[in-house]
Design a protein that fits this description.
The structure is a single chain. This protein has about 140 residues and is an all-alpha fold. The chain has one domain. It is built from 6 helices and 2 strands, in the order H-H-H-E-E-H-H-H. Strands 1-2 form a two-stranded antiparallel ribbon. Helix 3 packs across helix 4. It is flat, with a radius of gyration of 22 Å. It starts with a helix and ends with a helix. It holds the Pfam family DUF6698. InterPro entries: DUF6698.
Length: about 140
């Protein structure tokens, strides 16, 4: 797979990975928001770029499981080497603007409004279930 396609697909929503059908009859729902929206990503950063490059390197390897080391290859050192390649601020700004344009359609950082949350979060649901379970076991008579 072409690196640019792979790089751009990571922060996008799944429906952007494949072309849209031409007819409305064939159209499906848009699906979940992309990873960039979920995490509130507004712009690429040097760390995001280095992280994506590191993920692509791992994906191209023959390894099934992630480890810091892949034989003699150190992913952490690789990440920081990629990150430090952008020590020229003008080059870094140009690359960030390029990837913002490729992924978000605009070289400038996006503005994202607050995410609309319908109902309690998953974390709050888990906490409520734990509290209910604890209350039920505390209230139950011991036999």
């Amino acid at each position: 797979m072409h690196a640019k396609v792979k790089f751009a697909s990571i922060p996008r929503r799944p429906s952007s990975w494949v072309p849209r059908p031409r007819s409305r009859a064939m159209a499906t729902t848009r699906g979940k928001p992309g990873n960039a929206s979920i995490i509130g990503m507004k712009t690429f950063t040097l760390r995001i770029i280095a992280g994506v490059v590191t993920q692509v390197r791992f994906a191209l390897s023959s390894k099934q499981d992630w480890n810091k080391m892949d034989g003699d290859f150190d992913y952490e050192e690789f990440f920081w080497t990629i990150h430090d390649l952008f020590d020229d601020q003008e080059l870094a700004d140009n690359i960030i603007q390029h990837w913002n344009k490729v992924v978000f359609g605009n070289p400038k950082p996006r503005t994202i409004g607050p995410a609309a949350v319908a109902g309690p979060s998953n974390l709050n649901k888990i906490k409520a279930a734990r509290a209910a379970q604890k209350a039920a076991t505390t209230a139950a008579p011991v036999s």
